[in-house]
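PROTOCOL LOG
Step 1. Enter all chains and additional molecules of the complex.
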Amino acid sequence: MPALVRIGRTLRRTLLQAVPTILGIVILNFFLLQLAPGDAADVLAGEAGSATEESVAALRARFGLDSPVLEQLATYLGNLAQFSLGFSPRYGMPVADLIAQRLPGTLTLMAVALLIAILLGVVLGSLMATFAGRIPDRLLSVFSLLFYSIPSFWIGLMLIVLFSVKLGWLPSGGAGTIGSQLKGLPLLLDKARYMVLPATSLALFYVAIYARLTRAAMLEVKNQDFVRTAYAKGLTPFGVTARHILRNALIPITTMAGMHIGGMLGGAVVVETVYSWPGLGRLAFEAVMGRDFTVLLGILLLSSLLVIIANAAVDLVHAWLDPRIGAR
Amino acid sequence: MSADFGAYPAVTGGAYAAPATNEQATAPERPAWSNVKAPDARSQQSAAVAITNGRRALGVFLANPNALFGTAFLALVIGVALLAPVLYPDDPLSMVGKPFLWPGQDPAFPLGTDSLGRDVLAGILHGSRISLFVGLMATALGLTFGVIVGAIAGYFGGWVDDLLVRLVEIFQTLPSFVLLVVLVAIVQPSATTVTLAIAVISWPTVARLTRAEFRAIREKDFVMAARSLGYGHSRIIFREILPNALPPIIVTSSVMVATAILMESALSFMGLGDPNVVSWGSMIGTGRELVRTAWYLTALPGLAIVFTVLALNLIGDGLNDALNPRFSGDR
Amino acid sequence: MAPLLQVENLTIGFPRAEPVRNLSFEVSAGETLAIVGESGSGKSLTALALMQLLPRAARVTSGRIVFDDHNLLGLDAREMRQLRGRDIAMIFQEPMTSLNPVMSIGRQIGEVLKVHEKLSGRAARERTIELLKLVRIPAAEKRVDDYPHQLSGGMRQRVMIAMAVACRPKLLIADEPTTALDVTIQAQVLDLLDTLRRELKMAVVLITHDLGVVAQWADKVVVMYAGQKVEQALPGDLFNDPLHPYTRGLLSASPRLKNDFHYLSGPLTEIPGSIVSAAGEAGCPFKPRCREARASCGHQVPPLIARTPDRLVACPFTSSLKAVPDAAHLSH
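Step 2. Run joint prediction.
Step 3. Record the structure below.
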């Protein structure tokens, strides 16, 4: 069946399946909010300096914070429907706006990190598959296991020590040169300089996963009968690898890509903190420090949504790559 | 009836007509990769269940130099954790020397001191205790709960199964670390809360794996035989199915401990760890400001984390090789 | 006319075994040679050796393979690649796994044409459709974009045949082409192969364990056991008068379907034991299972005795063997 129809069907199915999950997450989010110590009224009263019982109670009544739980849930859902995630007194702006401000930073960081992880991982994995069982394979295997054992915040700091403090090649924090008036390509290059270390720190953990996966996928595919048929047709080893092996091995590799968005968001929290990168991760850190649960839970909700979208995207890519999906 | 097909000579229709109808195309199998998980993609393929021989598995494990190194190092860490109060009985947070001593500068402090004059080596030795405690405890709790729930869901099916599937999906959509941070921030950090929180975010994966195993094994002939002999459910679950479902669970457990240690260190780094205890993560956190001058304060505890987690991952690899016999040929 | 393919004393070795030993046979253009044997007899490895596609651990340790005056064992990789798919082609046993699941059948067939005849995309597609019609796949214009999983087993095998004959090879090797197919489809596929052989004047090496297939489609039969040729004959001779004890055992082990046969009237004659590893066997490999074995059988491998140029047997004691139950039912 043509690719477009397959993709359309998969999309519809994925979205349908996502609805109960989203609902569950939203409700969970709400209850976590309820559990959190202190609420908006406490914070506001604290900020305003008048924390008497009457004023706090009055604030509560005004914000509807003393109504029964279900009513509050309804209000919460209603707010969500209008894309409102609450208000943050600390930052003095709606949480949704705050997140929207920081979201692009995290998205670019994660995209670059994913790219690095996949590219490096596929290359390493192909090498490992080519030399399967021999010394280069074993060495690379342990090497990639090493990457998998390194905490991203620590490697972030170590990279700063090496490339920033000792060598002075790359900046140690921030997202761009402050006060610069660059445009176009120089601007891109400047941003890239700032992105190298954080993206690498974030990617390293996943390089191992993709290397292993590529190795396993290519070994599995190499032994399949249709590869033998391809050789029997007189194709060159390169032709066999490119048109037959890789095309099949890519399927599990791309499927995995989506499963790591959640983990990467978690990694982004520490990496962005280490590099003072303006993104959701650092916002989460600040929210934790300031016990600002409205912001924190807004981030939790939004990142869950991101994961769902990423999974849907991966499903689509998968349907496009594999003609067996979606057939009755 | 024959026709000329251009480049090919006329071919007679022969005594056999071409197939009139298309036989039903075989249903495509789900790609075998759908349940793949790192670090080793193959370790989670549990559709075909192999009954492994325990002794043989042990032999394979012991013949693996990586696994042996990992086990030895882990034993070292455990030994250190147990002996730390004996070797360094004083509180590692107490100030004992000149601040900012580099490693090797003063033989009394082989790994130097931090900004407040606290012994780095003492900190690392004591830090192993919290890392191991949280890692092992959280994994034990997560495993227990996950296996039980997964077994019930996989064996009985029905609404329990549906509920579990939904729950697992929710947990896998929520980013684990962000959720962890939220949980710990809500309930105030301490060793206990951190352990419980990590257990909460790790049990769904185990449950999912166990469920898959149980679903696969429950269709096997020997289970059918046990049922026809009148064995009760709990006996079948614990004596027939569970022992055969264990191999991938065992492999996963070592990865879980590794992940738990990484998460605990990240939490401590962010200041969400137990405030009364020295942890490798908290040492890195406090050393962060001084990374330009005293970078050994971040490097050393980090190395401790890396090697401990690496040891666990090597063990996990070794277990995978030993317990998944059909794959050991690839290596 | 010199035979198209000459295999002389072919020996294939693994690190600790010799699955094919001293194998020799010839095939002429337009002829079907059947190689018969049970699993483990080395027949599939022989086929792969002809294509120089042996698994990495296996090696041709001695012998010659001469195809169309080329010494195949002396060709380098590039020259061999040019022969593969163009002059020598192979079809395999399992059509489902032997086709790339993520590529349409049209593109897979077209690939052979592009590689060997350098056709453009459109020309390749037209030729592909012709090929699909040639192998009797209905609605070829629509099916050319289908994927293997959308076709039935018989049709997939036809696609493999189309891929193999696309460049009109001189030699086609068919390794158990119908074993994985339904019985009703088997006859169709074999008939297709035979028709193509006649029309394209190919030589066919048909590897099978099915004696019925041999009886119906072969011009010449080679029987292999434990990596060695134990008998060679024309099919009629083989079924009327099998000489080697192994062949005799094979033929009497198949159920008889004529006259008053009933499965209760007597047990199937089994050949006792099972095929043993070919390593380290001095003497006749069939000795452990042979009813007629003598002490001298264990001393050296019996040479092939040529009763007539078409009739070879690797056993010196055939003339004194007792008559076997009638196996003539298998030849038509």
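Step 4. Note key features.
Chain A touches chain B through 66 residues (CB under 8 Å).
The radius of gyration of chain A is 24 Å.
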